[in-house]
């Protein structure tokens, strides 16, 4: 691996797929030590177009050719979840560092398989919300005991997704087999931020609902059947001692988007807020508190990118923090950035939520 430049190859960097263009591409461009060395899709035309649009050195119509290219140090897997396993395992077998979107696998078993296969290789999981500078500062305040004994916490979160209308390209999010539904994505990200601030969730009671079993695909007019929940209410206990109530609403218009995490202690309070339509993991967050604190660090990426005018504006902010952490780990031989073992933890947590909602028993 180059001692001065970490060369990244992105699988799934299609110009028609707004996420990679809005998040990964500008996140890399903001960091001189990282370089977009290649992009891969399944088709020559889209791969060539992506390389031209994003300024990549090479393009690959075969993702496995990118994985095998010796000029690639880090393989980023930014494709649909069902395709993660084969690509991630191939990249690990090629002894590459891997950054994969969350959820890592379509099932807990798949996620644990990839976590085990990673061994001592550097990995990063796209649970980027916990690395937001305001989240990190909030976690420091809690860890230092500055709020005193923690008394309670509550979370209100929204997402524009999983509502009564969608588009055909997003239909797979509503299918159980994809492993990429409301609980694994929206709830997975929200609960991970809760754990980042308040410690691991040790017990959880949950109730899920399927509010919109039929979804209109506005681009085709077809009606799709939703197979997964689209609403969550939960009460959890955390290792810091704080009980926390969580509600996540789907299908919320951009104008009503909101995230808040309020923590109350015997000596003060803190609050994290945001308003990105896609959820807490996308865009920046603001920290306020009754106790004095040092301003959170400035994000390494500004949030601007090739698709910054659309719904994903700000997507590179937290993704940039993941890349910065991964780059430090690679340079220093450390493993501080949440990787595949953390992905397995999050996958098991979501499974506990599903089981608690299904059985009505605390898990």
Instruction: Give the class-level CATH name of the largest domain.
Output: Alpha Beta
CATH fold label of the largest domain: Dihydrodipicolinate Reductase, domain 2
Q: How many discrete structural domains? A: 2
Strands, count = 16
Count of runs of 4 or more consecutive helical residues: 10
- Fraction of residues in H or I helices: 25-40%
Mean of the pLDDT scores?
Answer: 95
How would you name the CATH homologous superfamily of the largest domain?
Dihydrodipicolinate Reductase, domain 2
**From N to C, what is the helix and strand string?**
EHHEHEHEHEHEHEEHEEEEEEEEHH
Any idea what the CATH architecture of the largest domain is? 2-Layer Sandwich
Q: Shape from CA axes? A: globular
Alpha-carbon distance between the two ends:
44 Å
What strand order characterises the main sheet? 9-12-13-7-14-15-16
Protein model, in words:
By secondary structure, the chain is of the alpha/beta class. Helices cover 31% and strands 25% of the residues. It is built from ten helices and 16 strands. It has helices spanning 18-22, 24-29, 44-54, 63-68, 84-93, 108-118, 133-143, 183-198, 316-332, 340-359, and strands spanning 6-11, 34-40, 58-60, 74-77, 97-101, 123-126, 150-158, 165-166, 201-209, 214-217, 223-225, 231-238, 243-249, 259-265, 268-274, 286-289. Strands 9-12-13-7-14-15-16 form a seven-stranded mixed beta sheet. The chain has a six-stranded parallel beta sheet with strand order 3-2-1-4-5-6, sandwiched between helices. It has a three-stranded mixed beta sheet with strand order 8-10-11, with no helix packed on it. Helix 5 links the parallel strand 4 and strand 5. The model has no long low-confidence stretch (mean pLDDT 95).
């Amino acid at each position: 691996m180059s001692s001065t430049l970490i060369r990244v190859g992105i699988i799934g960097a299609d110009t028609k797929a707004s996420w990679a263009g809005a998040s990964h591409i500008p996140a890399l461009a903001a960091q001189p030590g990282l370089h977009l060395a290649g992009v891969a899709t399944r088709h020559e035309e889209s791969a060539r177009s992506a390389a031209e649009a994003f300024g990549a050195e090479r393009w690959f119509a075969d993702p496995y050719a990118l994985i095998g290219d010796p000029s690639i140090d880090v393989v980023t897997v930014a494709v649909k979840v069902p395709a993660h396993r084969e690509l991630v395992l191939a990249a690990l077998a090629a002894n590459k560092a891997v950054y994969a979107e969350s959820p890592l696998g379509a099932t807990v078993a798949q996620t644990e398989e990839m976590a085990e296969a990673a061994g001592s290789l550097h990995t990063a999981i796209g649970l980027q919300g916990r690395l937001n500078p305001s989240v990190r500062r909030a976690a420091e305040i809690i860890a230092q005991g500055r709020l005193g004994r923690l008394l309670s916490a509550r979370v209100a979160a929204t997402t524009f997704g999983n509502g009564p209308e969608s588009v055909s390209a997003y239909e797979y999010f509503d299918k159980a087999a994809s492993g990429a539904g409301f609980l694994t994505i929206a709830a997975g990200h929200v609960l991970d931020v809760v754990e980042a601030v308040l410690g691991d969730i040790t017990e959880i009671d949950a109730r899920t609902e399927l509010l919109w079993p039929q979804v209109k695909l506005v681009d085709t007019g077809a009606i799709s059947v939703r197979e997964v929940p689209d609403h969550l209410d939960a009460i959890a206990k955390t290792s810091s001692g704080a009980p926390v109530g969580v509600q996540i609403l789907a299908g919320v218009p951009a104008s009503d988007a909101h995230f808040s995490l309020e923590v109350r202690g015997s000596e003060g309070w803190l609050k994290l807020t945001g308003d990105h339509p896609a959820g807490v993991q996308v865009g920046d967050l603001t920290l306020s508190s009754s106790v004095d604190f040092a301003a959170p660090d400035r994000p390494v990426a500004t949030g601007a990118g090739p698709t910054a005018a659309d719904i994903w504006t700000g997507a590179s902010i937290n993704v940039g923090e993941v890349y910065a952490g991964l780059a430090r780990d690679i340079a220093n031989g450390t493993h501080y950035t949440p990787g595949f073992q953390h992905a397995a933890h999050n996958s098991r947590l979501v499974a506990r939520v599903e089981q608690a909602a299904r059985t009505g028993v605390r898990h």
